[in-house]
Structure formats: structure tokens, C-alpha cells
Design brief:
By secondary structure, this protein is of the alpha/beta class. It has 12 helices and 19 strands. The strands form 4 sheets. Strands 1, 2, 3, 4, 5, 6, 7, 8 and 9 form a 9-stranded mixed sheet that branches. A 6-stranded mixed sheet has the order 16-15-12-17-18-19, sandwiched between helices.
């Protein structure tokens, strides 16, 4: 365990420098006092470092799993001889932007411990690779330091906080009760059976042909269509990997998609995930049971980040070839200018011919801030004009998609999930998928 000088020793040496200059000016013959004082200070550093004692057992407590955007706690504890101590961890940039975590250790009885609260910024497997421990001597002039290799990993999953929210769970419980009641009352659009008409039934449900044959009124009993195929498609290209309020757009999109997929599975539909960049990355089988939702979460965690432009032509053609029946395709994507969006619009146009498409894009809060900023100087004015031009071009592309028959959802990331769920339920109730 090497002994190293502390910051206090450095400040003490800096304070002694003017004294050495004064001695050299006033009594040149006594110049030997200056190096002697330095040697005394060095001796104090060594003695103080020796009095710091050794390091006993140490441990690191880190969770095995975390969610992107959700805080997690890492704790370091060690049996040290003094109270003044600190620790540092070398980590994956997913946990810290600088790849380094520092902790101040507080002594309690014979153990010095500290905690660090981290917020993962990307999905994947984050590793802790090395630990540094440093503790000062009684005078604070010398310190001991050790370094140890680590082999700990933290798996960063998509954020499922909206799925666990009490509001969504309450909504699903009430919605499922409502679906059972709908089937009892015979509502919906898919024919199930005929029953004798009774007072209070909807007159539009009367089957006049069957009533004429039996000389009494009969009504149609219908049920809501179930077992629809829903594909959540993710553009993992460069535009979707840009940060939006601290997280990449793709991670915001994954959270939104998984929330809607959970609602769809609870409603009796089948869901699959599709990810692509320059080439298709992922296509899961259709999941029809809500108890298998973890398979969608694990698949979404494997979606990689790409710094290249996506190939919409190849990706959407591959998806179309894989789908054997009409499906609802929810496409999460973004674009920076109409030229980059041209191939996307053409590919989506071919997709609309066979499937129902919902295009989901996240509103850029930074762009809105630039547009609404007061023009205090020429730079701000130019930035505002450029942002307004980009917003208008973006609106034109979205309008083209709407005219092609694509359902477009654009909203801030805080509200995009609820808007997508509302749109899915409206499409499902209208029996527009099958």
C-alpha cells in the first residue's frame, strides 16, 4: 500500500515556499534551512501515512439490474484505520458520463462506507472494472491508496415505470371488467350469436331477416375482435440515438412501445418487436400471453444504437415479407429534413397498401425552445429562424404521411405513451385492424 501526499501537504509546501525565499534573501548562509524544512515535511507525510493504518475487508454492493433513466445506488464499504477516506470506481459510460464514480466515505464504528446515486443513460450491460480506495492519516498530510480490479456488471433494461404505474394498472383492471360486460351485453362488431330481442336492447342490433323468418324480433350478439397482430417497429438509426431531455430518443420510444404492448397483451392481442438500422436487427415472434411480457422486455433491451442512417427500404420490405396477415404496425422514427425523409415516406407508402400504420415521433422540446426564444441578439434570431424553418419542413413531411393514410402521433415524450394507448384502443374498438 503506497503512501502518497495529500492536498493538505501540497498546500503546506506552497506556504513554505515564501519562507524559503525570505531566508535566502535575509541570510544567504542559512540557505540549507529551506531544504531541511522540506525534508521535515516529507518525513511528516511518511509518518502520517504510516499512522493511517491498513485496509481490512472491503466490499461493493451494486444491483444486478437497473432501468435506463431510473436511479440506482452503488455502495462501497471498507474497514479502514482512519475516518477521512474516499473511493473511486471505473465504470462503463452507461453509468457515468466520465466513466468514473467518486464517493466520500463516512466512518461508522469500524467501517467507512459511502453511496453514489447513478442514473443510467443507455441500455446494455454496464461493467465496474476497478476500485480505488484512499484514506488519510491523523494529520491529513499523508495517505494510503490501494487499487483493486473488479468484475461486476449491471444489466440496464428498458424503463417500465409507466407499466407499473398505479394509474395504468387501475385502467387495465377497469377495462378488463368492461370487456366482460360488453360481451354479456352483446356489443362489438364481430358476430357471435342471435338472441330474442328484449326491451332496452339497441334497436340497431335487430336482425330483420332472421326476425322475418321466425315471426318475432331477434337481435345480433356481437363480440369485440381479438387476436390482432401488432408490430412495434423501431428505427435505431442516427436520429433516434440523439439525446432528448437526457435520454436517447430510442429509449423513450422503447418505453412507450412496451407500455402499449402491455395494454395490448392484456386486451387479448398479439405483439412483436422489430428493430432496424442499416439492416434489420431484431424481429421477435408474436407474443399473445401477458405472462410472457418479459420476453418483449428482454428483446427490447437488445436493440443496439447505430450512428448511421437507417435503410427504410430494406427494413420495411423485410417486415412486409414476414407478415402473413394484415397487422397494425407502430413505427417509431424521426428525421431531420425532408430529403432524409423521402425514402422513409416512399417505404411507408408501400406498407400502407397491406397494413394499418401508425407513425410515432417525439416532439423536439429543444426546437420549440429555440423558436420561442426572444430575439435578444442576432445569433438568437438566426437560431430561431432556422428552428422555425425546420419545424415547418417537419410538419410538411407529417402532412404527407397523413394524406397517404398513415395515422401520425407527435407529442412530447411525457405524453406520447398515453396518446399511443388511446389511439390503439380507438383503432381496436373500430375493428380497423383485421
Amino acid at each position: 500500500m503506497p503512501i502518497v501526499p495529500t492536498a493538505r501537504a501540497g498546500w503546506a509546501l506552497a506556504a513554505l515556499a515564501p519562507l524559503a525565499v525570505l531566508i535566502a534573501a535575509a541570510a544567504p548562509a542559512a540557505w540549507a534551512l529551506a531544504p531541511a524544512i522540506g525534508l521535515v515535511l516529507l518525513g511528516l507525510v511518511v509518518i502520517d501515512g504510516g499512522l493511517a493504518g491498513g485496509c481490512g475487508a472491503w466490499r461493493i454492493a451494486a444491483p444486478a439490474d437497473g432501468e435506463v433513466g431510473a436511479p440506482l445506488t452503488i455502495r462501497v464499504a471498507a474497514e479502514l484505520g482512519t475516518a477521512r477516506a474516499a473511493a473511486a470506481l471505473a465504470c462503463d459510460p452507461r453509468l457515468g458520463s466520465a466513466g468514473r464514480i467518486t464517493l466520500a466515505l463516512t466512518r461508522t464504528e469500524n467501517v467507512s462506507a459511502g453511496e453514489a446515486l447513478l442514473t443510467p443513460v443507455r441500455r446494455g450491460t454496464a461493467s465496474l472494472t476497478r476500485l480505488w480506495l484512499r484514506w488519510d492519516g491523523p494529520l491529513g498530510l499523508g495517505a494510503r491508496q490501494i487499487t483493486r480490479p473488479l468484475d461486476q456488471t449491471i444489466r440496464i433494461w428498458p424503463n417500465l415505470a409507466p407499466v407499473r404505474s398505479r394509474a395504468l394498472q387501475t385502467f387495465l383492471r377497469d377495462a378488463q371488467s368492461g370487456l366482460i360486460a360488453l360481451r354479456i351485453r352483446g356489443e362489438g362488431t364481430q358476430f357471435e350469436a342471435l338472441s330474442e330481442y328484449e326491451a332496452g336492447m339497441d334497436r340497431r342490433r335487430i336482425d330483420w331477416k332472421a326476425s322475418a323468418r321466425h315471426t318475432r324480433l331477434y337481435a345480433r350478439e356481437n363480440e369485440s375482435e381479438r387476436n390482432n397482430q401488432i408490430v412495434f417497429a423501431f428505427d435505431c438509426g442516427q436520429a433516434m440515438c440523439e439525446a432528448l431531455d437526457g435520454q436517447p430518443r430510442i429509449d423513450r420510444a422503447v418505453t412507450t412501445a412496451l407500455t402499449c404492448a402491455y395494454v395490448a397483451l392484456k386486451s387479448g392481442d398479439k405483439c412483436a418487436l422489430f428493430g432496424f438500422a442499416q439492416t434489420p436487427q431484431l424481429l421477435t415472434p408474436f407474443i399473445s400471453d401477458a405472462r410472457a411480457f418479459h420476453r418483449l422486455q428482454a428483446a427490447a433491451a437488445s436493440l443496439d444504437y447505430a450512428s448511421a442512417e437507417p435503410n427504410f427500404t430494406l427494413a420495411l420490405a423485410t417486415l412486409t415479407a414476414k407478415l402473413k396477415r394484415r397487422s397494425l404496425i407502430v413505427l417509431f422514427s424521426d428525421f431531420t429534413d425532408p430529403t432524409a425523409a423521402e425514402l422513409m415516406v416512399e417505404s411507408i407508402g408501400r406498407l400502407v397498401d397491406r397494413h394499418l400504420v401508425v407513425f410515432v415521433t417525439l416532439a423536439d422540446s429543444e426546437l420549440e425552445t429555440f423558436i420561442t426564444a426572444p430575439p435578444t441578439d442576432l445569433a438568437t434570431l438566426a437560431r430561431s429562424v432556422t428552428a422555425e424553418s425546420l419545424a415547418q419542413q417537419r410538419a410538411l413531411v407529417l402532412q404527407r404521411l397523413r394524406r397517404m393514410g398513415v395515422d401520425v402521433i407527435e407529442a412530447p415524450w411525457e405524453r406520447i405513451g398515453y396518446q399511443l394507448i388511446d389511439r390503439y384502443l380507438a383503432i381496436r374498438n373500430a375493428e380497423a385492424i383485421g
